[in-house]
């Protein structure tokens, strides 16, 4: 059959071509030793000072309530589902622990999937808002969809806490029902700059930002803090980009001590990997959007030079939380923002346990809330920003992301 | 200042000629590498268009399926995000295994695609609009089958070897990865060219391309030739997918093929649709030009925009492409 | 009205399936007396007649070819052909296969631009014009293989022809302006008359794709007439007809000429050409070898040689 | 070849078509008015089985379906009537959305206009883009045109990402909305209140349906169908094909732009995320599924394509796969889609046929995409 002969001919040709090209090119073998022998060694911090009176979802155990629901709105499917699932598991864990401890106060959880798409979010959130039993919401993970639906929550006076949307503009719309359970870019940017300059002793930095408002907001804040150290080495990449040869050659020309990538792991990992491929020996610093096990999968041993800043506390370090989380997440370790989701739900549950049954009451409760959570101290100012929020440092050590202490 | 002028002022794209000048040669070599991959994929478009006068939109998915085959074979062989410690012989053997697998998988998908989606339509002699709509439908069906099977995000990176500079030309170094890809692509294109122009089967392809009815009268089994055309397009696309994964290790994603497919089609048109040597020339040229555009205009998207602009310009001023349509005459 | 919406197929003698129709003018036509019918047909012919001012008088040259040469690369398809078509006549263009008839036809209808020489309509050269402009100028043509708009009804096909003369703008159509309404009404009237004129009014509402072959041929002629041409060019209109149908076609062509149109006819069938044309031009290997009355052409030795190759016995 | 088909084989849809066709004009309106009223009342009734409630808010799901219908109507002019395969239609939708955002959102540097002014403005600007894209490309053959329009759609999306003032993914917040407040002070056209938006879009869709109907029953509609059927023959019959193809592009673009502006208004936020090729293919699927060349058919197709994923949320992930498969299967087994092409191209068509032969015209169940021997491709 001529088809088969054609297949043989072409594969033989492929074999010939590859071996010819292969031998001509390759001489060395084995790994030329990736990873940056950084001259600065930062000790690993293995245990975390858990605040003694951190609020737990179980609460007093004898709360009474009925017909009250908490909702999760965010991505469960679609291209950026992973971040949403991390948060959802945290929320589910808190609800389960609460319902086990308070037999006669069973709080229901309703899930609304927005696919993280600002176009789909209004339809889903309008439906959520119209269900009167919902009095509190663990909010939308992404800044885009939060912007598209903030007005709807405000109109319904329904409190919604976002564990991950960090764009500063969200708290400038005068919404009284929006609360952010983590530091915004304006906090994390300067902290990252401080970490690069003080801890990593870098005096020439390249800042690479992606095109999401998370990436742009964070890069702007970091650039202000870095000042002239990063003035002449800036570059832009875009979501979905896979090949960074232009950015890599720009960085190799500038020969910086460190690169600060402001964006998500989907682009951060290939960028770091292509940098190390081209022989970059400096440090690769990235924010919470990149701090994820998927970064290690995608970047491989090139991630040896990676450091992370994150306003999030390493959930995996709290052994008790980590084990309980695995029960809910089907064996996955806590991801980025899982602990924030857990803490935020705890605050809503404490509100319900204190007898609040209506939306206005819960909004008020959250507005005046002042207490420790596992991840941080929760106290909000008038606009919904956390009064104080600490940023934590991490680094990659032997293929694992480890905690290296607080930055500010 | 009037709001419109401020709007236009920041919209003005500044041409970063400086960085283009000092990265010119590295851009060229990198562009040639991408061009080689575009050329191999463009072959699929050129062959099918030459014979069937049909844009096979689903060819980009035939390509990405090959990339998944490469990913599975290599990760099965122990490759992963970090460069493997293998001797040359073992490395080349593994890569060949992956390439052959990719070629066979892609070819299989291409043939099945022709059999299931296009043959019933060809039998009924439907207008061209129907073919195009089916091709788009097929492209999305395969794409979103992969989406549901492997999920939205890209597969973990599969590093084949860390590229090292072999020699420097005009101050820009050429690494072994670029050499391998361009050399292998040239060899494969040569084989394809010889096959179409020298062998009996190749004559069958050219005959059907020129005039399908007369070719059938002359005893050429038209159906087999068409199947053969898809088979060849698939084989070459499979080989291209190995080089793509070599160049962009974290590029194995359900949507990875679509834009690359359009750029490969632009390359095929640039070279002269239906013209095998045109596919090679068009591919290399498009790879280089879109790389320049990317550096000149400062953002990676510009390489796609430049490719589309080239396609439109070529179609307007010289629809038969640089080398002219050789396989089939430009049938309306 | 019967469930089958009033349609029964009544095969009449010409093998054409004339459909027995109950409503409308066509039905009344059946019931008319011969004089009423003749009077109605006169009205129809009146509506169909071209009311366009034509610079040339009857009998004067309407369209003229001067030394027209068409060359495709090395091949010379037409070699310095010159002849004229007089207004009001039926001119036949004949020649063996490959003589260049179709190339000449395309050059005259503006589809090809002559490599040298000129095609003049009313003494003005056609020059570089787009096809639809040439049609508006007054040259309409039919196709050897039928190219009707299958998805449209017969009436709609003819109205597309009338659109060639319309000036309604898109905005006018959007807001149903006065010109649009006027032109639509006129177009439908003229199209209905044309369908009657060529004798296929009974199938006016059927999709062109579903019409029998004979009807489709006539519909193409009606559509060409709808553009009110100064010159109607028929490209082998009788292809595939049986003798009876050819007879009817000859009648129709004469009727068209009598209604004031000038007709150019390309045809292989000698009896048809000899029977209906006023003058004939003969082409062979791209050259004009003869021109004149049918009788002269029949006895012209060069023509016989061109066709039969053996000069001794006369053509059929 | 027999003229009328025998009774049994004619599908019931065609009988429905012929019943509808034979109704006198007044009775047609009598049937139409209750149907239109029902459509208007749909979100308020929120019928149990139809409702998409647990997943998405039903009035907003209706709004999305109506918006899709408006797009399908515009795309049908280009693909269904003029036979030009436009794969970049989402580009015009995006331009319309950005026009509404740029001229109403506080985030944009441009002068502020009342929202309702941006609707006609969006139509004019997209019409301009339609002409700019159409002029160089409309001389190309069908499949080249398809890929070039695909390129255009991508270029618009990429430019929205790269050009700084279009603010890429950051996007524009608080895009305008029609004026008016409810007695309790809240906005009538809030993004959470789908019903008024739905009524606005349905009204505009009906207006567009009438305008396109006027064009269809005129020289323009006949020219489009002639171009679709056989462009060469159309040229030789005196139809200036380039001019009418350009008009088809411009009108299609304008309707697409209008729908984009409405989408921007309802969501209240515009960024570069949702103007990609898969969306363009969904638009095409709506036209093909409904029956390209049939104005009412494409509205039905659009409703299916937009409503089904909202109604059966577990299908959300499979949406593109289902419609990709639908395209293939439809093209093989039922190229004419659900209702099949149906166009009446004569302003006084009904009276003419009645006068001439005493019965209405033949409604064909075939479509422009159905098998034709003459100019099929089939090597």
Automatic annotation (TrEMBL), chain B:
Domain of life: Bacteria
Keywords, alphabetical: Amino-acid transport, Cell inner membrane, Cell membrane, Membrane, Transmembrane, Transmembrane helix, Transport
Biological process, per Gene Ontology: D-alanine transmembrane transport; L-alanine transport; L-isoleucine import across plasma membrane
TM regions (residue ranges): 35-55, 62-83, 95-117, 129-149, 179-196, 225-246, 252-273, 280-299, 305-324
Entry's localization field: Cell membrane
CDD domains per record: TM_PBP1_LivH_like
UniProt-listed InterPro entries: ABC_transp_permease, BCAA_transport_permease
PANTHER family the UniProt entry points to: BRANCHED-CHAIN AMINO ACID TRANSPORT SYSTEM PERMEASE PROTEIN LIVH, HIGH-AFFINITY BRANCHED-CHAIN AMINO ACID TRANSPORT SYSTEM PERMEASE PROTEIN LIVH
Record protein name field: Branched-chain amino acid ABC transporter permease
From TrEMBL, chain C:
SMART domains xref list: AAA
Signal peptide: none
Pfam families: ABC_tran, BCA_ABC_TP_C
InterPro entries: AAA+_ATPase, ABC_AA/LPS_Transport, ABC_transporter-like_ATP-bd, BCA_ABC_TP_C, P-loop_NTPase
GO annotation (BP), single: L-isoleucine import across plasma membrane
GO function term, MF aspect, one: ATP hydrolysis activity
Key words of the record: ATP-binding, Nucleotide-binding, Transport
CDD domains: ABC_Mj1267_LivG_branched
UniProt domain ABC transporter: residue ranges: 63-310
Assigned GO CC terms: plasma membrane
Protein name: ABC transporter ATP-binding protein
Organism whose genome encodes this protein: Gandjariella thermophila
Automatic annotation (TrEMBL), chain D:
Name of the protein in its database record: High-affinity branched-chain amino acid ABC transporter (LivM)
Pfam annotation, one family: BPD_transp_2
InterPro entries: ABC_transp_permease, LivM-like
Transmembrane segments: 29-46, 58-79, 84-103, 115-133, 145-163, 197-215, 246-269, 281-308, 320-339
Chief place of localization: membrane
The entry's keywords: Cell membrane, Membrane, Transmembrane, Transmembrane helix
Domain of life the protein comes from: Bacteria
GO-annotated cellular components: plasma membrane
Membrane topology annotation: Multi-pass membrane protein
Subcellular location field: Cell membrane
GO MF, any single term: branched-chain amino acid transmembrane transporter activity
Taxon lineage: Bacteria, Bacillati, Actinomycetota, Actinomycetes, Pseudonocardiales
Span of the signal peptide: none
């Amino acid at each position: 059959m001529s088809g088969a002969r054609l297949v043989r001919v072409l594969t033989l040709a492929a074999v010939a071509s590859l071996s010819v090209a292969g031998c001509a090119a390759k001489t060395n073998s084995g790994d030329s030793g990736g990873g940056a022998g950084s001259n600065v060694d930062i000790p690993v911090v293995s245990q975390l000072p858990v605040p003694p009176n951190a609020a737990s979802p179980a609460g007093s155990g004898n709360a009474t309530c009925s017909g009250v629901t908490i909702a999760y709105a965010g991505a469960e499917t679609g291209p950026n589902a992973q971040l949403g699932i991390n948060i959802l598991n945290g929320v589910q864990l808190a609800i389960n622990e609460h319902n086990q401890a308070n037999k006669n106060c069973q709080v229901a959880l309703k899930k609304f999937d927005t696919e993280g798409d600002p176009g789909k979010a209004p339809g889903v959130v309008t439906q959520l808002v119209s269900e009167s039993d919902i009095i509190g919401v663990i909010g939308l993970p992404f800044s885009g969809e939060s912007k598209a639906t903030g007005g709807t929550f405000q109109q319904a006076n329904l409190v919604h806490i976002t564990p991950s949307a960090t764009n500063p503009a969200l708290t400038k719309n005068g919404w009284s029902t929006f609360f952010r359970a983590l530091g915004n870019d304006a906090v994390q940017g300067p902290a990252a700059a401080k970490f690069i300059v003080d801890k990593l002793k870098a005096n020439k930095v390249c800042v690479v930002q992606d095109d999401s408002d998370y990436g742009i907001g964070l890069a702007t804040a970091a650039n202000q803090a870095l000042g002239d150290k990063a003035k002449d080495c800036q570059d832009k990449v875009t979501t979905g980009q896979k090949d960074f040869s232009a950015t890599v050659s720009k960085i190799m020309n500038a020969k910086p001590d460190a690169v600060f990538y402001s964006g998500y792991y989907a682009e951060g990992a290939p960028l770091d990997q292509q940098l190390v491929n081209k022989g970059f020996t400096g440090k690769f610093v990235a924010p919470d959007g990149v701090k994820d096990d998927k970064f290690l999968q995608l970047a491989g041993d090139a991630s040896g030079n990676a450091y992370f800043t994150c306003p999030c506390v390493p959930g995996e370090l709290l052994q008790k939380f980590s084990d309980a989380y695995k029960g809910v997440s089907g064996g996955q370790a806590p991801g980025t923002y899982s602990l924030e989701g857990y803490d935020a739900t705890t605050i809503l549950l404490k509100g319900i346990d204190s007898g609040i049954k209506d939306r206005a009451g819960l909004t008020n409760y959250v507005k005046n809330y002042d207490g420790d959570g596992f991840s941080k101290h929760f106290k909000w100012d008038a606009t919904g920003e956390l009064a104080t929020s600490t940023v934590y440092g991490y680094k990659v050590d032997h293929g694992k992301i480890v905690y290296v202490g607080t930055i500010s | 200042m009037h709001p419109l002028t401020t709007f236009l002022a920041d919209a003005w794209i500044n041409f970063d000629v400086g960085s283009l000048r000092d990265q010119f040669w590295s851009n060229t070599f990198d562009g040639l590498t991408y061009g080689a991959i575009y050329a191999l994929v463009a072959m699929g478009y050129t062959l099918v268009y030459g014979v069937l006068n049909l844009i096979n939109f689903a060819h980009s998915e035939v390509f990405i399926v090959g990339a998944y085959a490469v990913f599975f074979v290599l990760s099965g062989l122990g490759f992963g995000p970090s460069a493997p410690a293998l001797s040359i012989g073992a490395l080349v053997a593994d890569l060949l295994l992956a390439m052959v697998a990719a070629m066979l998988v892609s070819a299989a998908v291409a043939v099945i695609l022709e059999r299931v989606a296009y043959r019933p339509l060809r039998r009924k002699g439907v207008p061209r609009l129907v073919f195009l709509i089916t091709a788009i439908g097929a492209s999305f069906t395969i794409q979103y089958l992969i989406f549901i099977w492997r999920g939205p995000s890209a597969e973990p990176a599969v590093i084949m070897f860390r590229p090292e500079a072999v020699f420097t030309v005009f101050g820009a170094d050429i690494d072994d990865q670029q050499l391998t890809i361009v050399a292998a692509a040239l060899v494969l294109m040569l084989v394809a060219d010889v096959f179409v122009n020298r062998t009996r089967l190749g004559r069958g392809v050219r005959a059907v391309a020129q005039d399908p009815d007369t070719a059938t009268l002359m005893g050429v089994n038209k159906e087999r030739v068409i199947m053969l055309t898809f088979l060849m397009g698939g084989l070459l696309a499979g080989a291209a997918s190995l080089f793509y994964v070599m160049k962009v290790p974290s590029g194995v994603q359900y949507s990875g093929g679509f834009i690359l497919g359009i750029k490969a089609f632009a390359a095929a048109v640039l070279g002269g649709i239906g013209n095998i040597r045109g596919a090679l020339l068009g591919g290399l040229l498009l790879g280089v030009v879109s790389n320049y555009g990317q550096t000149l205009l400062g953002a990676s998207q510009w390489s796609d925009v430049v490719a589309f602009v080239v396609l439109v310009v070529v179609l307007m001023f010289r629809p038969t492409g640089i080398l002219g349509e050789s396989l089939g005459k430009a049938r309306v | 009205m019967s469930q089958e919406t009033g349609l029964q197929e009544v095969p009449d003698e010409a093998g054409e399936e004339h459909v027995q129709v109950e409503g409308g003018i066509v039905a009344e036509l059946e019931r008319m007396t011969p004089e009423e019918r003749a009077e109605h047909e006169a009205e129809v012919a009146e509506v169909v007649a071209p009311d366009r001012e034509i610079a040339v008088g009857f009998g004067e040259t309407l369209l003229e070819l001067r030394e027209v040469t068409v060359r495709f690369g090395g091949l010379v398809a037409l070699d310095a052909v010159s002849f004229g078509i007089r207004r009001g006549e039926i001119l036949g263009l004949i020649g063996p296969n490959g003589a260049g008839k179709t190339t000449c036809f395309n050059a005259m209808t503006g589809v090809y631009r002559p490599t040298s020489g000129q095609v003049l309509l009313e003494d003005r050269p056609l020059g570089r014009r787009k096809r639809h402009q040439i049609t508006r100028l007054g040259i309409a043509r039919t196709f050897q293989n039928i190219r009707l708009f299958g998805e449209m009804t017969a009436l709609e096909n003819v109205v597309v022809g009338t659109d060639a003369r319309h000036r309604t703008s898109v905005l006018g159509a959007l807001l149903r302006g006065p010109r649009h309404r006027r032109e639509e009404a006129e177009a439908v009237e003229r199209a209905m008359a044309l369908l009657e004129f060529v004798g296929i009014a009974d199938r006016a509402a059927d999709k062109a794709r579903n019409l029998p072959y004979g009807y489709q041929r006539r519909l193409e002629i009606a559509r060409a007439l709808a553009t009110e041409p100064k010159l109607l060019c028929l490209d082998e209109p009788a292809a595939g007809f049986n003798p009876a149908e050819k007879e009817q076609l000859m009648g129709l062509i004469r009727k068209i000429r009598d209604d004031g149109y000038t007709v150019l006819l390309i045809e292989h069938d000698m009896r048809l050409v000899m029977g209906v044309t006023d003058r004939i031009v003969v082409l062979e290997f791209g050259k004009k070898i003869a021109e004149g009355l049918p009788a002269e052409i029949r006895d012209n030795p060069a023509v016989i040689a061109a066709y039969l190759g053996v000069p001794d016995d006369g053509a059929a | 070849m027999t003229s009328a088909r025998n009774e049994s084989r004619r599908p019931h849809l065609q009988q429905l078509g012929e019943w509808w066709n034979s109704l006198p004009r007044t009775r047609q309106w009598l049937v139409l008015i209750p149907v239109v009223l029902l459509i208007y009342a749909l979100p308020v009734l929120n019928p149990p089985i139809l409702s998409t409630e647990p997943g998405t808010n039903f009035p907003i799901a209706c709004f999305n379906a109506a918006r899709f219908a408006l797009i399908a109507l515009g795309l049908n002019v280009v693909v269904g009537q003029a036979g030009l395969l436009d794969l970049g239609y989402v580009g015009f939708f995006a331009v319309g959305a950005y026009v509404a955002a740029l001229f109403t959102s506080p985030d944009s540097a441009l002068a502020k206009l009342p929202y309702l002014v941006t609707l006609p403005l969006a139509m004019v600007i997209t019409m301009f883009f339609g002409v700019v894209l159409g002029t160089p490309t409309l001389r190309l053959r069908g499949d080249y045109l398809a890929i070039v329009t695909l390129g255009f759609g991508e270029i618009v999306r990429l430019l929205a990402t790269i050009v700084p003032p279009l603010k890429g993914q950051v996007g524009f917040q608080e895009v305008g909305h029609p004026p008016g407040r409810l007695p309790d002070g809240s906005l009538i056209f809030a993004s959470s209140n789908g019903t008024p938006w739905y009524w606005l879009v349905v009204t505009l869709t009906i207006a567009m349906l009438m305008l396109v109907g006027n064009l269809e029953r005129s020289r323009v509609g006949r020219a489009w169908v002639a171009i679709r059927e056989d462009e060469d023959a159309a040229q030789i019959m005196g139809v200036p094909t380039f001019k009418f193809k350009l008009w088809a592009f411009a009108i299609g673009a304008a309707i697409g732009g209008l729908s984009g502006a409405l989408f921007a208004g309802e969501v209240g936020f515009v960024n570069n995320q949702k103007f990609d090729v898969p969306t363009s293919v969904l638009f095409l699927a709506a036209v093909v599924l409904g029956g390209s060349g049939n104005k009412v058919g494409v509205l039905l197709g659009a409703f299916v394509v937009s409503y089904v994923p909202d109604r059966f949320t577990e299908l959300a992930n499979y949406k593109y796969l289902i419609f990709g498969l639908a395209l293939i299967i439809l093209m093989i087994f039922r190229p004419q889609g659900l209702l099949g092409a149906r166009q009446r191209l004569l302003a006084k068509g009904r009276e003419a046929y009645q006068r001439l032969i005493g019965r209405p015209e033949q409604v064909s169940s075939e479509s422009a995409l159905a098998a034709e021997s003459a100019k099929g491709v089939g090597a």
